Amino acid sequence: MPAAEKRKLEQEQMKINRINHIIECAFGLFAENGFETITMNQIASESEIGVASLYRYFSTKEDLAIEAAIYSWKLEESLFTKVFGTSEYEALNGYKQMEALLEVFEEALVSQGAFFRFVYYFDSFIKKVKVSPDRLSRYEDVISGSKNIVISALEKGIKDGSITFSNGQNQALAKATLSELYFSITHSLFSLAQKLSLSGEMLNMDKQVHSEKQMQLLIQMMLSSLR
After folding, report:
1. How many C-beta atoms surround the C-beta of residue 15 within 10 A?
2. pLDDT single digits (tens) 68-88
């Protein structure tokens, strides 16, 4: 490889590494403090670059926030990949696949509190500054990956008979579309995970039931409803 071409590739890789570092630093700041109080100057300082350089990579805080959101979901997706990307997972019936996926979500509550806080702050920020859906298309594409995994497990369970919604007795669930089931399940889990990661044991009454126990109970109720 000619020296000039090698140098160009090295420079491009350095740029990619620098951008990734900025995104990681921004994610950490946003997850810990929210979006309102964090400035581009603070992000530049945390990233150890000048603010003018930061603006060359990201023209607005909204652009950087979206990239940090994409980064956060890709990290989360890697947790699920360890489960659904195996031959053992593929061999499970649909109900067992849902059980495995929800168990990963339970583990994420313990290890990925920053992720749940970030998504809560991100949703509020994007709503407040009125970012258009078009600008969120790449973010939506990343999220849809997890949607497809859950819907595939639900569909498999209905076909193989491992998911029957209490032998058809639960008509509301039996008549629901796969998308309706997906959003109801994930939004409920997210709401609880965000509540627990944001406020945790803020009140004395919150200490009566441990966070992990609350998530376990919600997941068991969901799984029972699928039987």
Report:
1. 11
2. 999 999 888 877 777 787 889
